[in-house]
Amino acid sequence: MKVLVVDDERDIQTLFEQRFRKEIRSGEMSFVFAFSGEEALTYLNAHEQEAVLILSDINMPGMSGLELLEHIKAKYHKPPPVVMMITAYGDEENFNLAKKLGADDFLTKPVDFTLLKEKLKPIQ
Amino acid sequence: MLKIVTATFFCIASAMNCQAQKTDTDSFRLKLSGISEPLQKFNLIRTELEHSNNTSNDVDSSLCIQLLTIAQHLKSDSLLAISYNWIGAYFAFSKGDNISGLEYFFKGIPLAEKAKDKRRVSSLYFDISIVYADLKNYKSEYDYTIKGGENLPDQSSPLYNFMLIQYQNNLCGYYLDINNADSALHYARLGMETSAKIGIGLYDMASICFTGAAFALANDTANADSAFTKALNILPNVKLSSLRTLFYDSYIKYLIQCSRLEQAKAMCHQFIDLGNTSGSNAIRLKAVVHMQQLFDALHQTDSAYYYSRQESKINAAIFSEGNINRLQALSFRERLRNIEEMEEQTAYKNQMKEYILAVGLSFFIVIGIFLYRNNRQKHHANILLLEQKQKVEETLSELKSTQDQLIQSEKMASLGELTAGIAHEIQNPLNFVNNFSEVNKELLAEMNEEITKGNWEEVKAIAKDITGNEEKINHHGKRADAIVKGMLQHSRTSSGAKEPTDINALCDEYVRLSYHGLRAKDKSFNAKFETSFDNSIAKINVMPQEIGRVILNLINNAFFAVNEKAKNAKQNAGSYEPAVTVSTKKENGKVMISVADNGNGIPENIINKIFQPFFTTKPTGQGTGLGLSLSYDIITKGHGGTLKVETKEGDGTKFIIILPV
Prior knowledge:
The complex is a heterodimer. By secondary structure, chain A is of the alpha/beta class. Helices cover 43% and strands 20% of the residues of chain A. By secondary structure, chain B is of the alpha+beta class. Among the domains of chain B are: 419-491; 499-660, Heat Shock Protein 90 (2-Layer Sandwich), CATH 3.30.565. Helix content of chain B is 72%, strand content 7%. Chain A binds chain B through residues 8-11, 14-15, 18-19, 59, 61, 87-91, 94, 108-111, 113, and chain B through 420-421, 423-428, 430-436, 438-439, 443, 465, 468-469, 472, 476, 620-621.
C-alpha cells in the first residue's frame, strides 16, 4: 500500500519513516511525501491511482489541505483514494467541512500512530 | 354730673381765639371762599367749629358735612377721624342723641389708630366716656377714660398737657359721679397742677370747680368755700359759656347744700342771665331748675311755682327745639347717607378701577408667565444641553477608556479568534516531541535487541537515528516555547511608561544587537548596514523597550530578507550585495524611522496580510507570525503613530515608523 503524506512540516517525513520502519522494511507499506498541496497534486497527476491513502495536513501555506481534498474528491482519480485529514485544528467547523468535502477519516495532532495503524488495517 | 364736654375739642389756637370776640359768620364765609387748598379749608372749618362750639355750646352740622366731604376727597384717615369726632359731638353733645354720637365716635377710632393720631384716639375715647357718664353707665365711663388715658400723646408733644388735663378732669368727674370724694379731690388737684403747667389759666376754672365740688362732697365747707371764692374771683375773666355753666352749676349746688340761700339766689340770677345771653335753653333750664330748688328751700311756693312753670316752658321749647333738632338731625343723616353713598359709589368706581387694573395686571401676569415659561424653557434647554454636553463628555471619556481596553482586548480577541491557529502552532511541534520521543523508546528497545544479538552495525545505525530524533525533539520543544513566549508578549498589557528617549541611540543599539545576534547564529551571514541619523531630533517621549522591540523586529526582518536573497544569489552565482539601511528624520513635527533592505520585497498578494497575527513567510517553525503584528500595535495604539511599508518585488522593502513628537 502506497501512502501519500502531505504536510508542510519537513520533519513529518522522518517521523513517518521511523514510525512505520517495520512496515517499510517488510514491504507492507511505502510512503511518498509532499510538502505542499501543489506538490501533492503534481505527484498525483504523475502517478495516477498509485497512492491508496493520502494523509493531509489542513493548515499549509499555499493550497490548504481542504482545497487539496476538494481537488482529489471532486475532480480527480476514479475511484477516489481514501483521504484522511490530519490537523491540529480540533474544531467542529473544519471537521464538518472536511466531511462535507468527502474526507474519509479525521485525525488530530499530535498523531496517535497506534490509532492510525489500526485505521489503516481494514484498508489494507 | 359735672362735665365740660366741649373741652374735648379745645386746641391751643381756638382756645386763644375764643377768649376774644365771637367770630363773625359772614367774615368766616368770605375767608372760606378765598381758599381753594382743601387742607387749609379743612383747618379753617375746624377752627370755626371750635369757635362756635365754645361760645354757643352748639355744633354746626353744615360745617361737619363740609369737613367730612373734604376728608373723603383727600382720603385722609386722620381728617376722617376728626370729621367723625365732630359729627359724633354734634349728635351726642349738641343734639342729645347719645347713641348716634357713640356710633360716629367709634367709627373714628380705627381711622385715628390707622393714622397713628394718638391725640385723636384719646380724644374720641374721652368723648365716649362722657356719653356713658350722661347715660349713667359709670363702669363704661371709667373704662373709656382709662383707654383714652392709655392713648395720650407722647410727653414731648405740645398737646400732651391739654389731653392729660382732660383725662384728669374726666376721672375726677367719674369719682364725683360715684361719690368718691377723696379720689375726686386727688384728680382735681392733679388737674390743677396740669392747668398750671399749661399756664394760660384757661383750665383753672374747671379744676377749681372740680376741687370745690369734691370738697363739698366731702362736707369740707372751709376748703369748698376757699375754692369757690377763688372761682368767683376769676369768673369775670372766663368767657367760655361751658366753663361758666360748670361754675354756676357746681357753686349753686354747693350753696344750696350748705343753705346759703341768699347767695344761691344771686348766683341763680346770674346763671339765668348767662342762659339768656348765650341763647342756650340748656343753660336756662339748668338755672331754672336751681331756682326752683332754691325757692323750695326758702319755702316761697309762689316763686317755686313760677320757676316750675318756667321749667315747663323751657322744656316745651327744648321739646319743640328737640323736634326741630330731630328734623335737622334727620336731614343731616340724609345728607350723611348721601355722602356715604357717594363714597360707596366712589368705592364702587374704585373697585371697578381695581378690577380693570386687576384684569390688566393679570394680562401682564399672563404675558409675564409666558415670558417666564419661555425663559424657563430656555433655561431647561440650556440645562438639557449642559446635561447632554456632560453626557457626551462622559461618553467620550468612557470611549477613551474603552478604546484603551479595546487595544488590550483586541489582542485578546485576536488570540481568541485564533485559538485554532495557536493550537496548530503548538500542536505541530508537540506532535514531533511526543512522537519522536515514543519512536526513540521503541528504537532503544530495538537497540537492546541488536546489542544482545551483537549486531553492532545495526546498533550504531539505531543510535544515530535516536540522536537525530533527540535533536528534533529539542528543536520542536524550543519552537513551542518561542510560540508561547510570543503569545504572552502579544497579550501582555504594556505598562511601560513613556520617557524622553534618544531615538538615534536606540536605533544604533538595536542595529548592532541584531547584526551580531544573527552573525552568532549563522556564521555564513554577512550584510552591509548603514545608518543615517538626523541629529536635530531631540529626545522624544516613547516607551523605549517597546519601540526598541519594534526596531529590532524590523531590522531582524530586513537582515533575514537580504540573507535569503544572498543565499539565492549564491546558488545562482549572481552578484548581490546585501545591505540594510536604518535612518531617522524629523519632518513636520514628526519623527520618521525607516528600516530599508535591498531584499526580494514583499509579494503584492500578501502585502495586506503582513500585519496580521501569525502571518509569516518564513519557513514553518522559523517565525511565529507575531512580530509585525506586535510592532503595528506598539506604534499605532501604543504611541499614536503609523507603521507604513513600501516595497517593490525584487528591489527591496522599506518599513517606515512615523511617531508624533
